[in-house]
Amino acid sequence: MKYAKHLLLLLTAIVLLGSCQPRKPAPPAVEAAIPLGPGSTVAISPDGQHLLVVRALAETNEGWLIQTDGKASYKLFDFTSTYLFAAFSPDSKSLAWSTGKVWLADLETSQTKVLLGDDTDSTGAIAWQPDGSDLVVELSGKLVRSDRQGKVLNEITAAESVRGLSWVKLPNGSEQVLYNSFPAEAPPFVAAVSPAGGDSRKLAEGEVFSVGNGRLFYANPSSEGSLLVVDISGETGKKVLVEAGVTGLAPRPPAFDMVAYVLQSGETANDLWLIPATGGTATQLTKDKPVLGPLWSPDGKHLYYSVFNVEAAEEEEPFSVVKLPVP
């Protein structure tokens, strides 16, 4: 009997001791996603007010601007090409896009003009200079620098099949043009070159990339799909964040301390995850949905992405745009 009494006292002490221990905070709850309408995400304006999305129709495609608060949207252009590259100007007042020719729209006046290219040219990826004065564009197998009037200022470098382009200002104040090339006889790679032109410098082998705070985030979806980060100046700090299965990525501004990535989880499902840029435990944001095209709001508080409806009828737009608040 006395042992039972001692056992009861011991159990009581353990319970009280456990209740006094500091508890690990629970991970922040992800809020419910907010639907914004049909379309697939292409670009977000630097002021965070608009998204450019594509709506696919039977005979043509449409480029739409939708407000990120979901209150309004309007069609900006039609196109029939199989690709679209687009970029908002740093002041969010202009939009450049490439669909066979390079077009430029003044979003305040809705005036649109051909910036570069004609029926004999091929055009591709686009990026703006950080101060918004010039652009870099893929034009017939070369990266060229153009002003807002469409005057080619200089050739930057020859580049084969560029699918990603970024003009960045590094922490040391210098500017670099980063591009993603898919050569026919070699693995895809990311390289950097001066906007004034010259020899390009290969940074890494990869098929998709993004840049933030002088670091390169990249992945190679068609092979193992690992997600890596490295300093743009060289191999300093190279780290594997995710071993395999990554099909898309978006580092979180303004600190770029987290990376949202799309992880293939089945034949039709691609889930959205979040991981620290230094590595560590990942947080799953969506489950069992075909997700693609993640874009961050400039303040890093919302993720925008598209969801594919595998059961959509032939006449229906199969993609829808979603806004996800992220703590």
Which descriptors would you attach to this protein?
327 residues, 4-stranded antiparallel β-sheet
What does this protein structure show overall?
This protein has about 325 residues and is mainly beta. The protein has one helix and 28 strands. A hairpin with a 3-residue loop joins strand 7 and strand 8 (about 100-105). It is globular, with a radius of gyration of 23 Å. Residues about 1-30 have low confidence and may be disordered.
Q: What's the total number of strands?
A: 28
Distance between the termini: 54 Å
Largest sheet: 4 strands, antiparallel
Helix content: under 10%
Order of helices and strands: HEEEEEEEEEEEEEEEEEEEEEEEEEEEE
What is the tally of helical segments?
A: 1
User: What is the overall shape?
Assistant: globular
Strand order of the largest sheet: 1-28-27-26
Report the β-strand fraction as a percent range. Answer: over 45%
Give the class from helix and strand content and strand pairing.
Answer: mainly beta
Radius of gyration: 23 Å
Low-confidence stretches: 1-29
Mean pLDDT: 87
What can be said about this structure in brief?
This protein is 6% helix and 50% strand. It has one helix and 28 strands.
Give the secondary structure arrangement, pairings included.
Layout lengths: L1 H19 L13 E5 L1 E5 L5 E7 L4 E7 L5 E7 L5 E4 L5 E5 L3 E5 L4 E6 L6 E6 L5 E6 L2 E6 L4 E7 L3 E8 L5 E7 L7 E5 L7 E5 L2 E5 L2 E5 L7 E5 L7 E4 L3 E6 L6 E7 L5 E7 L6 E2 L6 E6 L5 E7 L10 E7 L2
Antiparallel strand pairs: 1-28, 2-3, 3-4, 4-5, 6-7, 7-8, 8-9, 10-11, 11-12, 12-13, 14-15, 15-16, 16-17, 18-19, 19-20, 20-21, 22-23, 23-24, 24-25, 26-27, 27-28
